[in-house]
Here is the input.
Amino acid sequence: MKQLTHTIKKELLKRIYLHHGEWLADTPLACGKGCATCCTQSVTMTGLEGQLIAEYLQQQDRLTELDRILAHRPQTSGPAPITTNAFAEYCLKGVEPAEPVHEEWDFTPCPFLQENICTIYSARPFSCRAFVSTVNCAKTGSAEIAPLVLTVNTVYTQLIEELAQGQLWGKMLDILECYQIKGGGHKNGTTGHHLRRAKPIPGLLVCEEEQKPVQAILERLGAEMISGQPIRTLLGLEEVLYQ
Ligand code: SF4
Here is the structure.
């Protein structure tokens, strides 16, 4: 991937969110406004997504609210699971991951949820956008997701991690604490045992029969322009698609 400014990275992230939302619009889903079963404190994200949320809250004059949320949250215990691209690296090498892949799910509701409505909806991280289900999971107890949707969501997750590579990765509140806006700029977080660093894409986790539809989606994304340059070039999609 090319060296990109923070502004371009943010534009790319927003475009990836938009592109994913447009693609998903054709899929019949049970999810809707007021459905918040998946809105827990286990949501993970990249530092770049954390910066977008912090900047959104700043624009809305809600940084005090963020400070209050962070001051009252329980501290995360235990090591963070590996990131999606770290997991992909193990898979592509055919090696069992030597680090934790999952952690115990924390069902505490997300602090941005009010009366079952997300109060940062337009800035919510990709994990929230990827939690979709064809059945009402509040009734069935678990979500159902078509295999291709799962694969495409994983690919977008990998792209966002690539875009945020080198930045911290972890649970939403841990990341927001690291990228709080203080004195006019983002705090630069330091790693702890509950945080990881976002990694570049080692290859996509796509099986042979899904390669064609995934390639078509990425080619559509790649053809879009940001600041006069195709996203394909900015994200280095050729390397990702044809490696
Ligand atoms: S950020 Fe919004 S969509 Fe995501 S878990 Fe919190 S309330 Fe739900």
The first strand starts at residue 44 and ends at 46. The pocket of iron/sulfur cluster is lined by residues 36, 39, 43, 110, 112-113, 118, 120, 124, 128 (CB under 6 Å). The mean pLDDT is 90. DSSP finds eleven helices and nine strands in the chain.
